[in-house]
Design brief:
Layout (H helix, E strand, L loop, with lengths): L2 H6 L3 H22 L3 H18 L10 H21 L4 H6 L11 H14 L3 H12 L4 H8 L3 H28 L1
């Protein structure tokens, strides 16, 4: 009986065995489809969960177990790649994704320019945390996992960064009203 058939039958030991048997193959595929080790690790975990869920779909008369595992992994990785391609890249995030004209023509442009200037004055780590939160929509706990920072630190740095931006924008708009 194959490992996938054993998993489909609910044999818990087969899960560990399939990880041992196909871990290197799946890691190799994942590392080619992802940008860094953290993404590859997440992809590998997703693939093994998918294998566990779809183990009952394996049919040894159709093909070898390694083929089923490879095809399933590849499909999962392509789906992840497509989703990621819809999001801004880290290079785009580091370059800034908001363009503001040099000569703002409306009040909104002035506010955006003030916010961008305040953002540029933040420490680079704080900028990265805010980008992950606002642009990519990552939760604070996800950001903590990605960066390796404690959850409380992530929350505090994002909050203080946003407060600093808000204060700068408020000062800018108040000074603009007085002119």
């Amino acid at each position: 009986m194959s490992l996938l058939e054993r998993i489909a039958n609910g044999e818990a030991a087969a899960v560990r065995e399939i990880i041992d048997q196909y871990g290197d193959l799946i890691w190799s595929l994942a590392s080619r489809f992802t940008h860094n080790d953290a993404d590859a690790e997440e992809a590998v975990q997703d693939i093994f969960v998918l294998l566990w869920r779809k183990a009952d779909q394996y049919d040894r008369t159709v093909g070898a177990e390694v083929t089923f595992v490879s095809v399933l992994a590849r499909r999962c990785l392509i789906d992840r790649w497509r989703q990621a391609s819809r999001r801004p890249t880290p290079a785009e995030l580091n370059a800034g994704t908001v363009g503001v004209s040099d000569s703002p023509t409306t009040e909104q442009d002035e506010i955006a320019a003030a916010a961008l200037a305040a953002f540029d004055n933040l420490e680079s780590e704080q900028q990265q945390l805010i980008r992950l939160s606002i642009i990519l929509g990552c939760s604070h706990s996800a950001i903590a996992q990605i960066t390796g920072l404690p959850l409380g630190t992530v929350k505090t740095r994002i909050r203080t960064g946003l407060k600093a931006i808000g204060k700068h924008v408020k000062r800018h708009t108040e000074s603009g009203v007085q002119q």
